[in-house]
Amino acid sequence: MSMRTALAPPPRTDWEPPVRSSRVESGRLARARARQRRRRATAVCVLLGAALLVGVDLLRGGPDPAPTRPVASTPMATESPEPAASPSPAAPSPSAEPEPVYQMAGEFPSSGPGTWTYAKSQGGVLGTAGSIKRFRVAAEKNVAEEELDVFTSLVDETLGDARSWIAGRQYRLQRVPTGASYQFTIYLATGETTRKLCGAGGMDTRMNGVSYTSCRLPGRVVINLNRWRMSVPDYVNGKIDLHDYRQYVINHEVGHELGRFHEGCPGNGKPAPVMQQQTYGLKGCTANAWPYVGGKRYTGPPVA
């Protein structure tokens, strides 16, 4: 009997991996997908958080600014949560403007001691060219201190106006207090003191026995308190404010101090030159308080 070599049986070609149950497979797939979804969600959250931080930083534009001092402001009006049930009543129409003052009411002294209270402050330089002429302002001692304040303020306002004497650019003007060097003084004097001062210089300020006009003496511009308070008929009848007359009389008398002489009305209906004696009447002209009109020196015919 011959010996035969034992051979291994041939491999099976029909082998397949064992089939798992569909229930087990489905559970594992579900868990894997859930883990994948969680990882994706975590990644998205991280990205969104980073983007948010970058956006906030861009909006802030860097470090916070240093705190600033609070500034007062007008409170903002708040809106009503609901519209009003009925329309609001109409606002009352503004009342008519008060009538201009043509004469001051109330009593004031007609005479005084002839001594003076001076404005204490120093004013600014009025004008842009020319040598400076310095002046003081004073009121008689029995004239109220409030009247001196008003007088001083109006002198500054009038002489500093672009239509006043500084428009000629020949000189500048400055009010100075007592103790400073000066060229002239502007006085607000009671009627009787005005009469005495002007009379000493050869001028009669009376009309119908009462001191009426103002005057100028060398270095002294004297404004009559009677006219300062009561104006003149032509200014009142023409509905020109007392403020305008006061500016006229300041410019007129200071004009004399600056070397100007009297002028007449240049024609019916035309503005009166400031050097016209408007206190005695306008003579057909219209009231005018200024030496410069329309940027030009305005004059009338000379009066002897």
UniProtKB/TrEMBL annotation:
Q: Which SUPFAM superfamilies match?
A: Metalloproteases ('zincins'), catalytic domain (SSF55486)
Enumerate the InterPro entries for this protein: DUF3152
Tell me which domain of life the UniProt entry assigns to the organism this sequence originates from: Bacteria
List all membrane-crossing ranges.
41-59
Q: Where is this region: Disordered?
A: 1-36, 65-108
Locate the compositionally biased regions of type Basic and acidic residues: 13-28
Q: Pfam families this protein is in? A: DUF3152
Keyword line: Membrane, Transmembrane, Transmembrane helix
Report the residue ranges that make up the DUF3152 domain in this protein: 106-283
Compositional bias of kind Pro residues: 84-97
Q: What is this protein called?
A: DUF3152 domain-containing protein
Organism encoding this protein: Catellatospora coxensis
Q: What is the lineage of its organism?
A: Bacteria, Bacillati, Actinomycetota, Actinomycetes, Micromonosporales
